[in-house]
Each structure stands twice: as C-alpha cells, then as structure tokens.
Amino acid sequence: MNESIILFIPLCSQIREDPDVASAVAAIRSLLEFLKRDQSETILGLRENMTKAIQRLEETDSSVAVSSGGELFLRFISLTSLEHPDLSQCKNVMIERGELFLKKISLSRGKVGKLCHTFIKDGAKILTHSSSRVVLKVLENAAADNKRFTVYVTESQPDSAGKLMAQKLHNLNIPVTVVLDAAVGYIMEKVDLVIVGAEGVVESGGVINKIGTYQMAVCSKAHNKPFYVVAESFKFVRLYPLNQQDVPDRFKYKADILKTVKDLNQEHPMIDYTPPSLITLLFTDLGVLTPSAVSDELIKLYL
Amino acid sequence: MGERLTTSTLLVTEEDEKKHEIIRAKGEGKELTKEEKQRLRKEKKQHKKNKKDDRGPPEKEKEKEKASVPAPSKPATQSPAHKAAPVPVNASASESPVAAEKPAKSKAELRAERRARQDSERASKQGKKEGGQQSTSSKPKATPNELQPVVKRLPDHVQVDDPVALKKLAKKLERQQKSGQGCSLNITGVKVPLRSDYGYKVSLFSHLHQYSRKNPPTQQISIPVTVIHPSIVRLGLQYSQGIIAGSNARSVALLHAFKQVIQDYSTPPNEELSRDLVNKLSPYISFLSQCRPLSASMGNAIKYIKKEISNIPSQCKEEEAKRILQECIDSYINEKIILASEAISKYAIEKISDGDVILVYGCSSLVNHILCEAFEKQRKFRVIVVDSRPRLEGREALRRLVKKGIRCTYVLISALSYILPEVSKVFLGAHALLANGYVMSRVGTSQIALVAKAYNVPVLVCCETYKFCERVQTDSFVSNELDDPDDLIVTRNGKTHLENWQTVKSLGLLNLVYDVTPPDFVDLVITDLGMIPCTSVPVVLRVKNVDQ
Hints:
Strand order of the largest sheet of chain B: 3-2-1-4-7-9-10
Order of helices and strands of chain A: HHHHHEHEHEHEEEHEHHEEEH
Shape of chain B: globular
GO molecular function, one term (chain A): translation initiation factor activity
Low-confidence stretches of chain A: none
Radius of gyration of chain A: 20 Å
Family (chain A): Belongs to the eIF-2B alpha/beta/delta subunits family.
Shape of chain A: globular
Number of strands of chain B: 10
Largest interface: A-B, 15 and 16 residues
Structural class of chain B: alpha/beta
Helix content of chain A: 40-55%
Mean pLDDT of chain A: 85
Keywords (chain A): Cytoplasm, Initiation factor, Protein biosynthesis
Structural class of chain A: alpha/beta
Number of helices of chain A: 12
Number of helices of chain B: 17
Oligomer: heterodimer
Number of strands of chain A: 10
Strand content of chain B: 5-15%
Subcellular location (chain A): Cytoplasm, Cytosol
Main location (chain A): cytoplasm
Distance between the termini of chain A: 33 Å
Mean pLDDT of chain B: 78
C-alpha cells in the first residue's frame, strides 16, 4: 500500500527531528497528512482507510497513547455535520477540524504544566519514575517559578530511561539523584510527593505507565504520600483492565517483539497498570480530576 | 345574608378543626406536615375572602366534606391531593352533577380555581423544602405532567410502625376504589385490600411490612372484581406466591399485564384517555404493591408508561391511542431488556478469558445469559454457583448452566471463603443501582463482594440501565423487603424445631430479601452503555435524564 509508506516517513522523521513531541502527536500529524492525500471516493471509504492507517501506526509504535490518540482524532473530525453534497467539501471540513485538534493537543502539555506546578511547594522532595516529558514540563514550570526542590528519579530498567531524565533535569539546574528501581521503598520516607506521567489513562481512572509505577504507587499508599499523575487528555483510552493480566498484550510489549517472538511469557512487559484506588489526583488539560471523575470525562469525550 | 352566616360558621368550624389537627400533629411530631397544613388553610382562607360574594367553593367544600370522608381526616385528603392532583379534580367532577342545583359558577371554572389554588400551594411548598426528604417513593405519586420537582416523602410502605401513616394508606386505598369508578354509581363494598402484617417483627425492621404467603391478598376481594382487572389480580397472586420472581421477570410480566389492561380499556364519556387511564392504573399499582413491594425496575417501567399515556394527544382516537401504547410497551421491553442484555453480553464476553473460574450467586437472568453466550463463543471456563437458603435460587441457575454443557460446581454460601482462592472473577446481578453507587441485590451479595475483595478477586456487576434509580441508601435497613418468616422453618428427620416460634415471645424470624453493597467492593459495572466504574452511576442517570 502506498499509504503505508506515506505514513512511515513523516512519523519517523518527526520523531527524530523533534524528540520533544509526544509519539501520539506525531502519529496524529501523520494521520492528518494521510487524510490530505487520501484518494477515496466516499466518506465510508475514507473512514475505512483512516482506521487501517491507525492500525498500521499501532503496529509501528505499540504505545497506548498512539491508539487512543488515533481514535480520538477520528472521532473528533467526524463529530461534525458532514451533510455537504460534495466530498471535497466534507474533506476540507475534516481537515480543518483535524488541524484544530492538532493545535489543541500541542498546547495540552503546557496547560498541564501550568496546573500542576502549584502543587509543588518550596523545599519539596519529589520522586518520579522513568522519563516523562510532561513531568519534565511541570518541573520546568516550577523551577521557573523560583521554587527550590530536589528530585529523585528511578533508573527504570530495562532501557535506563531514568538516566536520560536525570540529564535533562541537570540541564535545568534542578538537583537530581538517580536511585535504583529496588530502592523505591527505601526512599519513600524521605520524599514529600510522587509525580509520574502516563502512557494511557483508562476508564476506571487507573493509569498505564512504564513498569515499576504500580510498585511505586503501592509504596506511596503505604507511606501516605500523595501520588499524582500528569497526562494529556488524548491519552484517555476506552480500556477497563481488572488487573495486570487483563491489559491487552499489544500494549505490554514493543511492536517489533510482538511480531517476532513466539512465546510472550518469556518476554518482559514494558508497562503495568495502576488501579485508581492508589492515585490521589490526575492533572490533565481538562482540569484537575479525581480518578472517579475520569469516567465522567471519558463519557463526555467518547459518547 | 343567610349564606354569609354559613360561610363564617364554616370558617369557624374549620379553624377549630385546624386547631385539633395542629394539636394532634404536634403530638406526633410531624412538624412539616403541620406547617404545610397551616399554610394550606391560610391560603384557602385567603382565596375565600377574596371571593366573598361567590358561594360556590365553600358550599362545594361542605358538599365534599359530607359526601366523601369525615371531617377530621379532611387534612389527610388534602395532603395526598398534592401528590395526585387529578384524583380530587375527578372527585369534584363526579360530585358536580350531584350538586347541580347549586346556583354556583360552572364546573369547569371551579375546577380551574381549585387547580390554581393547588398549584400555588405546591409552588410555595416547593420553595420551602429545598433539600427534600430522605427517600423518594418508588411508586410515582406526582402527576406525569408536572415539571417541578415534587416534595419527596417517605413512602407509606416503609412507615408500617406509624399508625397515622397506616391510616392514611387505608384511606388512600378506599379513595382509589371510588375514584376508579368515576361517574358510575355501583359502588359496592369492594376495595383494594389492605394486607395485614403477620408474626412478630424484629424491631430494627418494624417499619417494613411482613406478610404471610398463606394469606394472599386476593382472599379479601369478592367476586366479581369490579375495580381490579383480572390479569392484575392474577399478576398480584403470582408475585405474592413467588411464582414470578426476579427483577426482569417481574417487570416484563407487569408490562404484559398492562398491555392487557390497555386492550380491555374503554374511555368513559366526558373523559380523556390520557388522564383517565392513569387514574385507572393507580388502584392496580396499589394492589400490586400490597401483594409484593414494587421493585426499582417496576417503578421505572410504571413511570415510563404513565409518561407515555399522558403524552397521548387529546385528538387521538381510542383505537389509535391503544395501538400507540401497545407499541410503546413492546419497544420498551425490547430495548431496555432484550437488546440491553445482548449489548451487556458483548461487553462481558470481552472480560471472560480462557481458563477462567467464574463465581456466580443466586439466579440472575442476565448473568446466566452472559455465561451461555460466552460458552457458545467457545470460551473455556468453569462456573462455581453459590447458593443460600431459604430461596435456594442457585439450583435454578445450576440447572440452566448444566443444560448448556458448562462445567459447574455448587456450594452454599457458608463455604465461600473455602472456594474463593480458586476463583478468578465474580459475576453478580443487581436488583437496582442506587444513585450513590451502591448496588442493591439479593441478600448475600454484599457478603460475597466483601470476601472477594479480601481475596483480591475482581467483582463485576451486570445491570441494565433501566434498573438505575435515583434513590440513595447507605445501609440495608432503611428500605428493604421482609419475606414470609415461615420460610425459615425447616423439617429435618421428621422434626420441626421452629414449629411454634410464634408462642415464644422473645423469638423473631427475619427473612430479608435485599441488601446493599458499597461501591468500594465493586470493580466494574457492565451496562448497555458500556463498562463504567461504580461511582459513575449518577453520570448515567444525568445522561438519561437529558435524553428524555
């Protein structure tokens, strides 16, 4: 399919050019490009092609955010009256709405940062997990607000993403310490609050994030420390896992592993699920939400 | 001049009555009702003083007093009048031909005046009672056309230990049989029977009814039945004997019986179908609630029917109207029950994976349907059926599942903690979902949810959206149902130990039917709208209200 080539190229180039862009945003940008170049004759054909495109994108990058972002994009552009007799007019409307959606979500990280940094008090000790661009933005805003705080980052094996985060924080002149994943229980009594990002926010109000987040949440609950999650609204996904086993396999492992490996039981999952009972608050561009309010917002977004 | 005197004497006697009422009400501590009665009287007096030259209303009042009920219970008729405005209006309509010789205004103008008065009283009362009372009645007592929120009172069926409320209920049933007649004059001794309680009631639950199955309400109805339609009598008997049990079954049976009623209904002359049919249904509903208290699903179904009936345009012909109503009922059953269960099965099957061990409790038609569908879709799982006395409904569920070929295990609820380590998921049905996220279901359900939580087993509740109700309840005492206590008596090896339980003064047998489960124990609720957490029930209610 020619379309798949058209998709791969912008996606890869965007991610390489601008590592600051969330993978979901890059995916949506490619979808928009795809929409502009699509040749189908009917709206139904258009939708089918879009769905296939989203599937292709998921095969490339199996994160939850790409799947949720793609679905929301599709819903947003078609949630308008497409009663025009001319297909090209309909397409123009959809493209317009697509640009609007893209603009909105590009600004969402800034909104989240603005909301959350006020919860960081002067002299606070913050614990975070792995590397999240949203958490980085929050800490950046807090530092710009002349607040003094120190950050502990977990190493986050197997890809050592925590070291990357520590480097970025060091560049912002924020005092940072890297701790082992196994040292979360040890360090918990020293910290004041825990802030993590999310790859996906599920219907129950729980989050899907890098493996190790669930442990951190359980520890923080045991020590009565607030556990905050920062996520943009395009990460809201229509999943409802009951426990760790209930998360679909296509999110747990990287895309290339899913394709090549036969026995997934030998592979290590990259994400885990944190239930809503362990989360204090979620900071999104829709506002500051409790986990039970997430379902409310999801109903509004999807229904 | 003579008429003036009667008016003033009438006002004086009214004032005396009012004082009696106030003293009586004070003694019983019914603050709000007293206040409202006072306001009622004041406004009435105001109206009368404004129309001093008009003799119609006061004399009509006197007529009404003598004709229908004795004077002291006049306030009793006034306050229920707020809840069911068409009834006194129709009563006055029936009396107006009798009082035809009075040189008063026309009947329509008088009716309009009374309605205006009641509207103003209702508006002033609504302004005072903002927060509202504890629970709403599951039997809708407000007129269907009313858009303002009605004052919520404690329903009569949870005030059994209050003699005033009981008397009110008896009067209401009596009044209903007369209003059911309309203009016809063959008022026999037939009335909607008031069932009497049986046996010693445990004091915590003395505010609820407790009936005996050996004493069906139909025994007190003489033949021929002129007030209650025979299909309703049959339905009531089936409810009270437990032949039809289960939330969905009861609602569907109710709707079918109503279809029959509508089919056999004929509009009396000078009456509108949309108003008269609703009045005809009220004594039926009272009778059914005497047989067995209405469930939340039945309450919602009745609300829907009453709304549909009152929305029938007045120029519609009778046959056409009947056809519309039949179609409405059919589509309600189809959408809310049959199609909803299909949608719920679709979502639920996603949650059933191969190798699962699923625990179910009692017999829920919806959960059985889900399991049968999953088995047909080649999912590999086995089921553990938990059962409890005295109903032993699990045996019915076991029968249905084994017939399909599903591997089942059967335990009693006392073995629950023994069996739970093997279980991977718990599927529960619900009788109703309350507005604060609590799940009202068969007694024993909250026990299962509690123990499952302790073992970290996910609990899934399956419930159609038509069972969502706006009641709020945090415990199982306030509003429940007491079944026949004799069911708990068991004969083993020829010996019945509890045979003479009534003779032992300090012994009470408690046969509870429902209990409420807090939302912390429930992980997921599967409805026809999708999978939602238990705390999102008010969101669904809000969305539904917006749709309507």
